[in-house]
């Protein structure tokens, strides 16, 4: 386990949670003090402040990277050098170029490269994606993903130089991969339109962004990210298809509601803003946020010699979309997603079916309040639209 | 009352509902059959198929236009000619140019011109806007409005030539005015970025659209409209400010949930798709959709000799934003909102405050799970970010 | 309008709201100061501190009683004396005996007697009751109604001698009538089992109660009332039938959610406990709480010479059930509802249908996860239960 | 694993799920066919139709009982005979007497006896109980638990002779233990009032029941169970305390909403009634229903040589409360909970605090809509109640 910040803590808690058979053997931190405290708190046997030593350690089968973004590339190179399986936290890199080099490093070395995109693995998302793949909502038309909260917990996130950007990099990476999961990974992201602004915080990076991602099928992805949201952490996704709709809420409204005058006290949930009044905790935070299913997929994949659902290649695609977002925010127009290495099969355009009635095109069929049926028809010859009630 | 379609029905039901003192005296329809049936069903004394006769009628104080979009302009001219107060359904016109002529007509004639934008008047929106104006969520940063459903009920809506467009014109006009209400009407809409596509229906107009509207204050408006949504009619708005957040749901999730095996049967709600399983009706449809409060404002305004909250000028601004949406969808870039006649006072840019601690900029202050406080600081001299836990 | 407390204010606001044609002409209060202030705030022309004068006033067509419970009877007698229509706030009386005398007074005098039970008239309840009557949920099996909040706003409520009891009288009267509306008013309430306790407040009356009301059809009514609930005012009803289920939430979760840091401030909603954090206002309080539809029914009934949906007789039945509740809380067993004057037609026992398959009773038919169908059958001869999967 | 029904399947799926280190080695079923299919489907190495052989098997460390209620006792005796740890599904027994014998058997043999009460272990319940124990809602006043659905999946459940009763035994056992968890296990359940009826199904057992459980502290537990509910499986709990309120929804409203026209198809969720329209799945069924955390506690307890949170003693207390429910349904009055072996420490009555102001008792303090504060006071000498606004 490389890193003792919030993400390292969540990862370790997940790995050591329930009756899991996988264990963290050695933890790396730049600070001896934090490393020792982490071992004590989380029942980890060994620690080191030497990054390469942690990776090369004889008991280390798999390296889990929970370090700031600017350290990902060099760490992956060390994993490649020592032939260790590597699981890297999100975002994979700060740019697609960096991500591509990391992907090449892993593939050249023939090591396992897992991309730790947890929100794709939330139990609701897994089941919803399965529903979509089973055809329950027909062809996907839109997919929207939102992650907003009042801002991250560590200083380096706020420094665009270290992080590679603001909430697009921090949160948009989740949204993009959720959207891709609903769209289907064979469905090429073609172009991006993005707005960013720094409305509240005294920083260089954006603190709010909205992006549209147009896919090859014609379907539209949309994400909304913010570091200025008030009220906790809002994690919601929506998918609209020709035959249905799916709404998932992962955090603020999950059927768990608490009112407290403030007596008692204690930790409520990640990014909660208040400790009294109406609060909305989640049941099991690491399960709800996808960490449990994510590590299950990763370690099962390693055991079974298969690729996990989220690979370094996926991380690279995410970074390519993020790059297009920033280019679009600058150019103020749609920008192509530059993917030199596109591995998807390609998908057809969403089909618009034409149904006929009396030689006219059926636009809509509906039941009226009084029980009768109404057909809205178009005469393609004359271009005229008529209602037919029966 | 001009028009006997769904909107004319809703309007009349509202006016004749509860203990209201205002009454529909004469109804106009192109069809004698529909006019007669409407009178019988709604207890209206007189009908005519002569538009001008209805307007000129001695008992007509106020004309309510519930006609297709392409008939609005000529009808308003007739109202001006006969000096009658006029309330026109949304959208005011098909283009800003047309709307501007209608606005000029009304102002030149000195008649009352009310813009029947009902969703700005939903009880939740009225209270939420009052909250925003009272400062409960601080400065508005984002406002989003969504209206999606499976498509309108009358043939003319589907004909771009008659309607002036697709769901942007039909539904986006609501969303735009809701967003403006939250932003403040002095806050100039500067430019628009819009995506449209025709994904499902065999029509010329778009059936899906997303637009971003940038306001003078820096705040961002966002709307999502669709004629392909499955599951009913989704009417939701969200506003995010520096001090809070507001979410309103006007239709599909309002605390009224019904499961039925399908026995009994009957009308569920506007745009409901099914008559069995889990259904989500609303209590009082005309009240929840804003019709009641809208007509109260209109008739009170007429009685008191003041302007209503929604005037022909507002309708003109909405059309100007819609025009910019279509231009942007074509040009694929941000397009300015062209308002030759801008009457707003203007507002300043959202202020980004800088707070100092030990000579450094405070980026964030937060409580950690273990109860300690953390400051994230930026040293403006060196550009370095640090965490300080205490 | 008799009374200038919270209820008098809500009533007057309702009558003077929207484009209503009914007006409050004269208001009575025991205090001159409060009467004057009330007139000024609510645009009421006249006031008096003489109860009989207000009733006898030439402009008074209808008397609205918004006074404490112990004053209802004498006021109704004055209305009878002066031959004025009377609308009395809930509960009608403190006991069934008192209610019966009031009912007799009104019927003897031949005056209109409306029972102002607002929560039966909430828009959701009206529509839900209509659904039940239309058969959408089949035979009603259970109906539950809850009203809980942190306690009432005026001193007299807390005094059992004046009020006639605690939350059973104050809130249970609503719940009972909601339950009766779902059960059908022909369905006789047979017996009651009730628990009460005074858990928190230093008062003589109960501050918490739960009651079960068994109806003639076999259906069970259940109410839960409390003056110790934390978090606002919880108004929820549920009905379960053989073919469906209805859940209504009238106050705390109606699709309107606000988070505020506390800036701005202002009135949130009746019984709201906090002014910051997550708040749950309602759109239009007097409409959502049923006042609008209630007065519409009352004045329409007066105009049309018919009985309103809620009469003094209904108020009497409610009081009879309340009396049974208190008797049961004392005796700790089921107590009959004593109704000397029962006017309902009577209803049959809910029918348990028996369906046969191969000569056996079908207990259940269901679809299994693997898609197959399963029948659970009972052999009435042997008493044996078997699963048959096909 | 003894039993291959729905519960055996859920248990095995849980044990074999994620990266769990515990495995099912041998499965017992009365039917060879079901046993073989179960092994194949769930990757279980061995099967047998000989109950004692499964228990005595050399690889069996722990026996998991997933058999019908009437087989629990003899199976536990076999576990005692062979000295194997035993985990028994809920309810422990059909009566408290049977449960007591099983408890004695386990304690005499000195074997580990875990009570598999899953719903006490749902992630939300675990966190909510921790909140209550931390004092976040003050003293518990009420706790309500509901489990209702359209009826169980296997024939034996419907046979009162085999099952020991209807939904009180099947579902009430969950509710009772959830209520006890909120009340605190030292808090003695004193007496019970229960209503049962058979309203719909052609069976001897009840199909609906409501019970009140009074605890030593004065707090009231309330449960509602039904085999006739329409709309899926409703699993909701509520706790009200002097300082707060907790609402948990485990199944039908958990932030996961799907609308589908019915295309695609597939398994939705346990007890779901429809495959089209609005559906409400849960993310990870075995996690949400508590199976994961339950087995973690059980196996951790075995490893650590401690008692689990839910023991055979808890199962015995649950059965004693169930017995009191049936006695009360018969006698139609409050019945004492007969616990010959009560091991709780006992708790004091909920304290009603008295606060003084000017020598009077403060009944309530509240903020008025106009911003002023109001005190409601009682003069204990005169018994008079007054409002003091300041």
How would you characterize this protein structure?
- Four copies of one chain form a homotetramer.
- The first copy, chain A, has eleven helices and 18 strands.
- A seven-stranded mixed β-sheet of chain A has the order 11-10-6-9-8-7-14. In chain A, strands 15-16-17-18 form a four-stranded antiparallel β-sheet, with no helix packed on it. The first copy, chain A, has a three-stranded parallel β-sheet with strand order 3-4-5, with helices on both faces.
- The termini of chain A are far apart.
- Chain A is about 30% helix and about 25% strand.
- By secondary structure, the first copy, chain A, is of the alpha+beta class.
- Chains in contact: A-B, A-C, A-D, B-C, B-D, C-D.
Principal-axes shape call of chain A:
globular
Number of distinct beta strands of chain A: 18
Assembly annotation: homotetramer
Provide the β-strand percentage band of chain A.
Answer: 25-35%
What does the average pLDDT of chain A come to? 94
Biggest beta sheet attributes of chain A: 7 strands, mixed
Radius of gyration of chain A: 24 Å
- The class by helix and strand makeup of chain A works out as alpha+beta
The most extensive interface, with participating residues per chain, is: A-B, 67 and 67 residues
């Amino acid at each position: 386990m490389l890193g003792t910040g919030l993400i390292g803590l969540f990862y370790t808690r997940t790995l050591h949670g329930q009756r899991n058979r996988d264990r963290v053997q050695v933890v790396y931190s730049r600070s001896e003090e934090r490393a020792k405290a982490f071992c004590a708190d989380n029942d980890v046997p060994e620690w080191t402040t030497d990054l390469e030593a942690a990776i090369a350690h004889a008991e280390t089968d798999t390296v889990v990277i929970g370090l700031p973004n600017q350290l990902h590339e060099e760490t992956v190179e060390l994993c490649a050098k020592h032939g260790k399986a590597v699981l890297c936290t999100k975002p994979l890199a700060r740019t697609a170029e960096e991500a591509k080099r990391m992907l090449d490093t892993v593939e050249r070395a023939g090591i396992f490269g897992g991309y730790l995109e947890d929100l794709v693995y939330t139990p609701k998302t897994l089941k919803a994606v399965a529903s979509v793949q089973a055809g329950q909502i027909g062809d996907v038309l839109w997919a929207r993903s939102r992650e907003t909260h009042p801002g991250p917990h560590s200083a380096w996130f706020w420094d665009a130089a270290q992080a590679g950007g603001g909430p697009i990099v921090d949160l948009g990476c989740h949204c993009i991969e959720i959207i891709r999961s609903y769209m289907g990974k064979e469905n090429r992201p073609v172009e991006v339109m993005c707005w960013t602004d720094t409305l509240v915080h005294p920083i260089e990076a954006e603190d709010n962004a909205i992006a549209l991602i147009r896919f090859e099928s014609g379907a539209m992805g949309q994400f909304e990210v913010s570091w200025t949201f008030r009220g906790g952490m809002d994690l919601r996704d929506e998918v609209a298809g020709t035959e249905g709709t799916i709404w998932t809420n992962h955090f603020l409204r999950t059927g768990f509601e608490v009112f407290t005058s403030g007596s008692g006290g204690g930790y409520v949930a990640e990014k909660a803003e208040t400790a009294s009044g109406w609060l909305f905790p989640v049941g099991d935070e690491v399960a709800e946020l996808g960490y449990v299913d994510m590590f299950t997929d990763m370690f099962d994949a390693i055991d079974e010699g298969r690729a996990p659902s989220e690979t370094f290649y996926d991380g690279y695609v995410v970074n390519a979309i993020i790059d297009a977002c920033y280019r679009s925010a600058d150019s103020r127009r749609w920008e192509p997603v530059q993917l030199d290495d596109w591995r998807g099969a390609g998908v057809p355009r969403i089909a618009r079916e034409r149904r006929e009635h009396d030689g006219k095109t059926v636009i809509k069929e509906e039941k009226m309040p009084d029980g009768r049926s109404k057909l809205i028809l178009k005469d393609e010859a004359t271009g005229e639209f008529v209602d037919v009630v029966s």
